[in-house]
Amino acid sequence: MARDELRSTVERVGDRFSLGEYEIDAYLAVLEHGTLTASEIADHTEIPQPRVYDTVRSLNDRGLVELQESRPMKVVAIDPGEAFEDVEAALGEMIDGLESRYTAPARETEAVTLVKSRSTILRYLEEIIESAEYELALSLTPDLLGRFAEDLRAATDAGVSVDLLVAPSGGAPPADEFDYGAVATTARTRRGITTPVIAVADGTYSIYATQDALRDDRDRYGVIFNRSALGFLVSGFFGTVLWTTTEETVAEDGEGRPYPRRYASIRRCVKDLLDAGGEFYATIDGRDVESGRSRVVSGRVSEVSFEVSEEVASLTLETEEGAVAVGGRVAALEDVEAHEIRIGRDEPPAYEE
């Protein structure tokens, strides 16, 4: 579609839907009753009697109603399928024309974005869930759990480890009525609408939003860390503040995933090692705490450290260079800050760049 034709189509669609409050009220009243007189429209709406005639003539000019010049004048509804047939066709042409000119915005790998649209927040939530390759941390409302249940089932079926928090707990579906084990590796509930909505995929791609952001009558905002190293801030907040203050564990299946496994969260990794028991080997992709240079280490896991509060977690590897202590993001006491952890049973998993 040529540029001038596209502009004309957009203007035509815009003009057709440019209805005022009185026109909308009158149109809906006529649609509901089929045929009304001017005085009846005034009775069924809050349109002042002197304004009714101008209002229905405007609707007639747009082809939305038919006027029968009788005494009294009757306003007759036109089938919406017929009334909007040309608009529907023009709208389809307009969308095709706009899409042909659409250029997808480039997303910087370190972008941090503030969004203020409910639909945008929902779109990012869906995208983050679908993008996870091996680990998901989620804090969802009961409504969002229902909305994304199928996506979460697909993720768990694909072997993604899912830590799911549902809040407020009072609205969460009961465990005997909802199969939490099908949508999460571990699922917990938390009290209060103060719990934010969070999604973190593989420790990097993440979103933080208030529950108010999903209500139309409140200020709405969400922060997107688009595959940014800063995503660990959201992940750390989830693991230390939210996950440790939950009310009830409604599903837990630490044995369901095969080895080798991949982790972004060292807390999740260490907890699984303690729960499973036995000998483990690890390959760590991260950076040296002192020099800041990228560093890959591998060896047998000789020691794990994990506080009951889940605020501290680390592990030690026996490598060819000796013992190496590994911590999570912003580690200071350990030798290596882990970005991705691979765990195997018989030997260190292969490192893949």
From TrEMBL:
Residues 112-345 form the Transcription regulator TrmB C-terminal domain. InterPro entries: ArsR-like_HTH (IPR011991), TrmB-like (IPR051797), Tscrpt_reg_TrmB_C (IPR021586), Tscrpt_reg_TrmB_N (IPR002831), WH-like_DNA-bd_sf (IPR036388), WH_DNA-bd_sf (IPR036390). Residues 17-80 form the Transcription regulator TrmB N-terminal domain. Pfam families: Regulator_TrmB, TrmB. CDD domains: HTH_ARSR, PLDc_like_TrmB_middle. PANTHER family: HTH-TYPE TRANSCRIPTIONAL REGULATOR TRMBL2. Belongs to the transcriptional regulator TrmB family. This is HTH-type sugar sensing transcriptional regulator TrmB. It comes from Saliphagus infecundisoli.
